[in-house]
Amino acid sequence: MAEGESVVVHAAAGGVGSLAVQLGHPLGAGRVIATASSVQKRALALELGADVAVDPAAEGLTERLLEANGGRPVDVVFEMSGGEVFDASYRALAPFGRIVAYGIATNHANEVSTGSLLRHSRAVVGFYLFHCLQRPGMFGEALGELFARAASGELKAIVGGTYPLDQAAQAQIDLRERRTTGKLLLDPPGDQVLRRSRALRAHTPGGAGRGLRGSEPDSGTGDPGAARGSRRDRPGADRHGQDGRLRTADHGVHRPSEREVQALVLTPTRELCIQVTQALRTYGAHAGVDVVAVFGGAPIRTQQTQLRAGGHVVVGTVGRVLDLISRHSLMLHDCRFVVLDEADEMLDLGFLEDVEKILSLTPSSRQTALFSATMPPPIRKLADRYMYDPEIIHIEAPTLTIDTVAQFQLPSTPGASPTSSWRCSATRPPTRRSCSCARRSAASSCFARCATAA
Question: pLDDT at position 107, please?
Fold first, then answer.
């Protein structure tokens, strides 16, 4: 960096960014421009030595960077986001300006043409710390200088929080969702707690969450094939609620260190989406699996931000998933596992065509699990078309009702239904009654008749 050059530091309130901001002027920067995602974080960047701090939102970022530099292009950009932030920063570069890319938090790769580099005399430099570690001569002197500045008080590390070691997964989630500042510390427990933690992990290799059965297959549960690692797809009639779906999605994420969307769970309703998400977060917390819920009725920008921060498993309603795909906020090219939850309900709501569109955007090598209380012909056709060598699993309780419930029928015509309900109550007087009717007028009539009988 030449004396007096302008420097842009993205994520200036983060662990690396907060140090870079402090080093800007001491190392000769003429103007230090920081970006941070909240008012509090921008205030911290200014306190650490930035001349100006701006919002890093991609829309209008180029103009904000130019304005922050007095209307002039910038010389150096330290960039770790990738995607639209990278493109906006590149457009703000001056001739002979350069971007130092040391991260790709959004997981959105960028392409820069050689023609653009030539026409604008710009440069893009990649930096990966592990390559430096192989060349001690590259960092030995610089590291010594950093230690000296820290010892003198000129450079201070910002500690944004301390987490117990067993909450490392939560620390990673908070980091990705940009709820933290500076460096995060992990506090290791005492030896006794550590031994207990290791014993627990050894005892539960599948990592069952609170209130859920372990992930190893047992008789009558939803997905023994997924637990074995089988490639075969699995449509099934589900009578056991979430557990089969949860173990299916959990077994689909084998490498949580990767930031790509590895599993997609489609649900017909927002309520089911929230319910499955909450359970999956508990179920996958042991392995640091990040779960993102996307559904209508909630701000789409918030969900886009969560997806940019990374999500291994996406649980979403059909419409919102399609919307995010059309905005290029949800990429499914690396999705290895798809779960269709309550497929018959999706059919009833008219979502089947949209479901097929989503499936067509996922890799053909994916594994698919379909859960449905019933298997009508359109659902069977969907399974035949989009599932590979499907293995059908029927899950059914031994009995549909408890022993204390007696079932009988009383044939009746539509006009005589209220009278029939009254006769039923008179001959078998219950302590509680539940009456279901097709129309509100019929329900009112039935209620009036039963209330009179009581």
Answer: 79
For residue 95, being part of any structural domain is answered with yes
Report the chain's mean pLDDT, rounded to a whole number: 79
Bigger pLDDT: 122 vs 161: 122
Torsional sign, CA 189, 193, 195, 199:
negative
Nearest residue to 66 (alpha-carbon basis) of 45, 87, 44, 93: 93
Q: In this structure, what are the phi and psi dihedrals at residue 30, rounded to the nearest 5 degrees?
A: -80, -35
pTM of the model: 0.44
Q: Is residue 362 part of a domain?
A: yes
Residue type, 329: S
One domain, residues 234 and 184: no
In 3D space, the residue among 268, 391, 385, 284 whose CA is nearest the CA of residue 318 turns out to be 268
Residues 113 and 244 in one domain: no
DSSP 123: E
pLDDT tens readout for residues 410-447: 777 666 655 666 566 555 555 666 777 767 777 777 77
**Domain contains 149:** no
Contacts for 277 with CB less than 8 Å, ≥ 6 apart = 291, 292, 293, 315
CB atoms under 10 Å from CB of 294, counted, come to: 27
Confidence of residue 399 (pLDDT cuts 50, 70, 90): low
* Residues 95, 37 share a domain: yes
Give the mean model confidence (pLDDT) for residues 39-51: 92
pLDDT at residue 55 in the model? 93
Domain carrying residue 179: 159-198
Question: Cα(162)–Cα(229) distance, rounded to whole angstroms?
Answer: 37
Distance CA 293, CA 295 (A): 7
Task: For residue 290, give the nearest of 336, 256, 316, 320 by alpha carbon.
Answer: 256
The answer as to whether 113 is a domain residue is yes
